[in-house]
Design goal:
seven-stranded mixed sheet, globular, about 25% strand, alpha/beta, 2 domains, five-stranded antiparallel sheet, Rossmann fold, 15 strands, about 30% helix
């Protein structure tokens, strides 16, 4: 009898401890999902549509490296509508291949305001002679594009750069991003097609010229758009470049290149290098070019979060499509912190989302800045972890 009572007591203790343990596990899981650090499980297959539409290291006012900002769109596959009301606890990430998840902030759909829905947009336009058949249409659609932006809730600035074998810097051939639609429409209306007719042009260095920071004095023989016209891209804005051309591009090391007539060192940047630079600055590149050059340009577009468009198929509607895509970007803006301050490093990031409709994950890459102020990076890192 005594042994039976002891056995009953032991069983009771086990049951009580099990209940307590389950409750602790439950509360621990809840706390981990409630803004804590948690290593997300690999998701076997996506049950909702999930896209990372942009990634960068300077997309918000305080987001300098090592802050990383993502723009993401989770959609219900049943109706292709964005899933509303997701919060920080719904998102998890793996940063820098080190398995750490450090969520800082999620700005949900409906709370994205003009203060954080910002875009600095630059057209990078081939104005050589062969573009004559496209240029008038392109100018008209770019002007319509500006009108579309002015009617949106985006805090925008818009400008343009032109090129042939050289980056063209004469009057009316470039415009620093402006919020004045009338100025943009007037200036771009002056563009004319001339020169060229000699094969590849200087598209990649033209994009680099438009992108290059004020401190990148050796990045490009043409210099820096920001230095030349004394403006700065806004830290809080997504940078978008729209390349429009009808031919392929020069590459570094060409000994026969017509670029040598303008720049003794020739072309500076490969496509791969420029993709890394665009990603490092949080920039997106759209490309409008002939379909038979798609293999040359598709990586430039898709690897920076943009899209390749065939210049020969309804060119008049292409910029309208880009405008619509821009006005719907950033349904959710998510900021994370990396603890890897290595300069010029390509990082892989996996972001998972867990919703009542299903789970999904997406993978993207970004490149850390080529120069990192370690003390400042550590200050930003520590401040981010306290928020």
């Amino acid at each position: 009898m005594k042994r039976s009572r002891i056995l009953i007591l032991v069983l009771a203790v086990i049951i009580i401890m099990t209940a307590i343990s389950c409750d602790l596990i439950s509360s621990t899981v809840e706390s981990m999902f409630d803004g804590g650090f948690v290593l997300p499980p690999e998701i076997a297959s996506n049950t909702i549509d999930f896209t990372i539409t942009g990634v960068g290291t300077g997309l918000r006012g305080y987001d300098n490296f090592p802050s990383i900002t993502l723009f993401v769109t989770p959609k219900n596959p049943a109706d292709d509508m964005v899933i509303p009301n997701l919060v920080e606890a719904d998102f998890f990430d793996v940063i820098d291949d080190n398995g750490e998840a450090r969520p800082i902030e999620v700005t949900p759909r409906g709370a994205v305001t003009t203060s954080n829905k910002m875009a600095d947009i630059v057209f990078v336009i081939d104005t050589t002679g062969s573009m004559g058949g496209y240029l008038s249409t392109m100018v008209t659609k770019a002007q319509d594009f500006a009108d579309t932006l002015s009617g949106s809730d985006i805090d925008y600035r818009i400008g343009y750069v032109t090129f042939g074998d050289d980056i063209r810097k004469s009057v009316h051939e470039r415009l620093a991003p402006t919020s004045n639609v009338d100025t943009f429409k007037t200036e771009i209306g002056y563009l004319t097609a001339y020169g060229g007719a000699d094969g590849p042009e200087n598209q990649i260095d033209a994009i680099d010229y438009a992108r290059a920071g004020t401190g990148e004095t050796t990045s490009n023989p043409a210099g820096s758009f920001q230095n030349d016209l004394s403006f700065l891209y806004r830290d809080a804005a997504i940078r978008m470049f729209i390349l429009i051309t009808d031919i392929d591009y020069h590459i570094p090391g060409e000994t026969y290149s017509d670029v040598l007539g303008y720049y003794s060192t020739g072309v500076s940047n490969t496509v791969t290098q420029e993709i890394a630079k665009l990603n490092s600055s949080g920039s997106v590149c759209y490309v409008v070019a002939p379909s038979y050059y798609e293999d040359d340009y598709v990586s430039l577009a898709t690897n920076t979060g943009g899209t390749f468009y065939d210049i020969g198929s309804d060119f008049a509607g292409i910029i309208d499509d880009i405008g619509e895509e821009i006005t719907t970007r950033g349904d959710y803006m998510i900021t994370f912190m990396t603890n890897d301050f290595s300069p010029s490093k390509v990082h892989t990031l996996r972001l998972a989302v867990h919703t009542s409709l299903g789970d999904a994950q997406a993978v993207t890459t970004y490149t850390s800045p080529s120069v990192v102020n370690y003390d400042r990076a550590m200050e930003i890192y520590e401040r981010g972890l306290q928020e």
